[in-house]
Amino acid sequence: MSKTDNALTELGVAAIRDGVASGTFTAAEVAAAFNTAAAEAQGALNAFIKLTPEKALEAAAKVDAARAAGQPLGKMAGVPIGMKDLFATCGTETTAASKILEGFVPPYESTVSQKLWDAGAGMLGKLNLDQFAMGSSNETSAFGNVISPWRREGSTAELAPGGSSGGSSAAVSARIAPAATGTDTGGSIRQPAAFTGISGIKPTYGRCSRWGIVAFASSLDQAGPMARDVRDCAIMLEAMAGFDPKDSTSLNMPVPAWETSLNADLRGKKVGIPREYRMDGMDADVARAWDDGIAWLKDAGAEIVDINLAHTKYALPAYYIIAPAEASSNLARYDGVRYGLRDLPQGAGLQDMYAATRAAGFGAEVRRRILIGTYVLSAGFYDAYYTQAQKVRTLISRDFMDAFQTVDVILAPTAPTAAFGLGEMVSDPLAMYLNDVFAVPASLAGLPAMSVPAGLDRQGLPLGLQLIGRPFDEQGVLDAGLAIESRAGFTARPAKWW
Predict the structure, then answer these.
(1) Alpha-carbon torsion 51, 212, 260, 189, what sign?
(2) How far apart are CA 253 and CA 242, in angstroms?
(3) Peptide bond into 164 cis (omega under 30)
C-alpha cells in the first residue's frame, strides 16, 4: 500500500466520517485503502469468509455523489465495515461459518445491516466466526480458524482472536477494517474485543433488531459494534439500533444521541465491584488490570462500592443449559429440505436425508450443543434442567437489579485470561466454556455491557475490562468506558507480521 493508503487505514469511524464530510479525502479513497489492506491480510489472518470490494466501492461512490450534490450525509458516511457472516446480506452469500449454509444467498437484508447501509456504511466483506456463533476461540468455523494479529512476546505461536466474533475482532485490531458488526450471546462481542485490544459493546437486549440474524439462542442473541475506541462504538451503535416491527423482541424506544452525550466525568456516579468475580487463583495480570480500572474510575470522580452478586457462580451452568436448548430448537430448520446443504445418499428416505445432511453440515461443537439442548428439553429432564436454569436466570437478573439500587455501573474483568493459543483448549470443551465466566451473567440478564482495553499482560497481550449497566443505560456504560479509555492510554497494537 502507498503511504496515503496506510494513513487512511489508521483512521477509525469518527475520523473517516468527519474527513469524508469535510472533503479531506473521498469515501472512494478510504474504501480502496481498506479493500487493499483486507486482501493483503486475508491469507494470513483468514478474518473474512468472503471479501466484497465492489460493495465497499459502490457504497463509497454513493456517499461521494451525495456530498458533491450537497445532500446530508449519514452517521456512517464513507465508513467501510466488516459484516459478521451471521447477518443476512441480500445477494451476498451468508453461511454462519457452517457448511450446511454454504452457497445460501439471501433474497433479503437483515435490519441491522440495512440500517448501516442507510447510514452510509459500505461492506468490505463477510467476516469469519465460530460456526453458528458457537465458540470462544474462532476454531469451530467450517472455513478455517481466524488467526489473531497479536503474538506473545518472543513467540510466533498462533493465538485465538476470541469468539464467536473472532473475524470481527481480528479485522479491527489489524487495521483492515475501521469497525465491524458482532453478535453477543454469552460474551461474543466482549471477549474477542478484550483478546485483541479493541472496544465492543453489547447493548440492552432488544436495542438492535435480531431480524435477519442467523439465530443461536433467541433470548440471548444481540448485535453490537466492535471498533477501536468508545466514540466509534457509540457512533456505530446509533446507526444499528432502533425499533423493528419485524422483531417481536425489539424495544420500541427512541435511539439516544450516545456520541454527542459522551462524558468521562463520573462525579456523582457509583461503581460496583462484585466480590464474587474476585475468584481464587485469578490471573495476576487480570487482577492488576481490574485494580487499575478501579483507580481510573475513582480518578474520574466515581465512588467505588463493593456489591454482592450472589448467584454469579450458577450463571455458567445455567447459560450452558439455556443456550443449547434454544439452539437445538433454532437449528432444527436446517434439514436439507428448503435451503443450504442437502446430502441424499443413494436410496435414502426422508429421515436418512435429514440425518446425513445434518451430520455432514454441522461441525462437532454445533452437534455437541444440539445434543445437550435436545437432552435438557426432553421428557423427564425439562423440569430438572431447563426449568431450573430459567429460575436461576431470574435470580441472576434480580441480583443485578438489587445492585443497581445503589450503583450506576459495574466494573469487572472481561475474560479470566489474555488470549490463549489456537489448539490449547479445543480438546477440552469445559475449559473453553469457562472462558465465558465473567461475560455470561450480563447476557442472561439482558444488560448493556462493554469491554474496553486496559493494558497488556506480562507476555505483551491485551487485557480488557468490562462495564455492565442498567437496562437501557448504554450511555452510562459508554461514559464509564470513556473514563477508563482516557486514563488507560492504551495505544498498543499488534506488530504487523502478515
Answers:
(1) negative
(2) 7
(3) yes
Instruction: State residue 179 phi and psi, 5-degree precision.
Output: -165, 165
Considering only 3-7, 79-83, 91-95, 435-439, which range has the smallest mean pLDDT? Answer: 3-7
Say how far apart CA 99 and CA 82 lie, in whole Å: 21
Tell me the β-bridge partners of 36. none
Q: Model-level pTM greater than 0.90?
A: yes
- Summarize the chain as % helix, strand, coil (round to 5): 40, 15, 45
* Per-residue buried b or exposed e for 279-318, using 16+ beta carbons within 10 Å of the residue's own CB: eeeebebbeebbebbbebbeebebeeeebebebbebbbeb
Unique residue bearing C-alpha cell 444440539: 370
Q: Which domains does the chain have, with CATH numbers?
A: 3-266+483-488 (3.90.1300.10)
Listed in sequence order, the residues at least 6 apart from 426 whose beta carbon sits closer than 8 Å to its beta carbon are: 137, 139, 432
Q: What is the pLDDT of residues 371-424, one digit of tens each?
A: 999 999 998 899 999 999 999 999 999 999 999 999 999 999 999 999 999 999
What are the residue numbers of the active site?
A: 84, 164, 188
- Closest by CA to 132, choosing from 364, 375, 475, is 364
In angstroms, the CA 68 to CA 465 distance is 42
What type of residue is 390? Q
Residue 415 to residue 436: CA distance in whole angstroms: 7
Helix (H) or strand (E) holding 453: strand 449-456
265 φ, ψ to 5°?
Answer: -85, 110
pLDDT of residue 4: 57
- Backbone dihedral region for residue 46 (phi beyond 0: left; psi -120 to 50: alpha; all else: beta): left
Give the span between the Cα atoms of 252 and 260, in whole angstroms: 22
Strands 462-469, 409-413: pairing kind: antiparallel
